[in-house]
Amino acid sequence: MSGRTKPLPSMFLILALGALCGVSWAACPCAAPKKKKKDPAPATAQPAPATIDPDTVLAQRIDARLESARKQIADGSWQQVCLGLPPLLKVVKKDPQRKEIEKLLAQADAEGAERVKNADKLYAEKKYSEALKAYRNILATFGQRKCAVEAQTALDKAEKDPALAAALRAAKAQDLDEQVTAVITADMKARNLSAPATKPSPTEEGSLIIDPDLRFDYIKNLTPEAACQAVQTLQTLAAQFPQTPAGKQAISDLALVNYDRDLQTRLKAAMKDASGKRILAMARQYEQAGRDDVAMEKYREFLKGNPQADESQDVAKRIEALENRVHPE
């Protein structure tokens, strides 16, 4: 037995001996070291929540809105001023801010009153189109302000003014008359011909119109397409405004057009050609949209009315191709 190591005493024996000797388990060298408890960290003092004064916040927002309104006035954005400040005036309690809002609105009212004055002046000068446009602009810009109410009153009054109605008819007639002039001028310039003889417009300062005594001669020498466009505009003018000076002149021109057989022949050919082009364009649109059946109908309509047209062979081929696609063998 001398060569063998002695077994260590059991844990039970160690505890028993410790109890006899009055040694606790914590003092035993076999016991695990006891962890020391850390002292708790001192509590950090939290800052008290800041108090929010509703009146202060409201005053700051109002000041910001007033500053924005000042910039809008400087930029001439009167519509924004008239939309934003009146509702703000209802919630403002402090007297200095109320006075500032009223001051800014007074500037808007002064601007609106000046615009009404200018519009009234245009109306008095019988520049009706410009006056009506100015009144409508005031109404759209200044909302419910006094100047907008005055503009609406002026518009209501103008609707019942027979002089205005006559002037508007004359203005629309003159616009059509000037469209005829534009057609003639554009065609002559395209062919490098001298500009037509003109004279001052009787209704619009600074504008020129072709001398009525010479207009038919110009129309007669236009290209068929341009002559067709000019005559169609004259027909609209004569039908819608026969009692205006421009309408009466259109009736006179059309009488000469109808009397000229050569011009009538060229006009009919031009109208037929224009109609064929419209039908052909519709056929191509239907074909591109996959409406082959409708496209074939339009192509056939074109061929029936324009059998000698340059496009007739191509159109016949398109009809054949569509038939093969719609009714394959």
Which key features would you list for this structure?
329 residues; mainly alpha; two-stranded antiparallel ribbon; 2% strand; 13 helices; 2 strands; 71% helix
Instruction: Give the count of helical stretches.
Output: 13
Helix content: over 70%
Distance between the termini: 116 Å
Low-confidence stretches: none
Number of E strands: 2
How would you characterize this protein structure?
The chain is mainly alpha-helical and 329 residues long. It has 13 helices and two strands; from the N terminus they run αααααααββαααααα. The protein has helices at residues 11-21, 54-75, 78-91, 95-124, 128-142, 146-159, 162-190, 212-220, 224-240, 245-259, 261-288, 292-305, 312-326, and strands spanning 198-200, 208-210. It has a two-stranded antiparallel ribbon with strand order 1-2. A hairpin with a 7-residue loop joins strand 1 and strand 2. Helix 4 runs antiparallel to helix 5, helix 4 packs parallel to helix 6 and helix 9 crosses helix 10 (245-259). The longest helix has 30 residues, at 95-124. It starts with 10 loop residues before the first helix and ends with a helix. The relative contact order is 0.04. The model has no long low-confidence stretch (mean pLDDT 79).
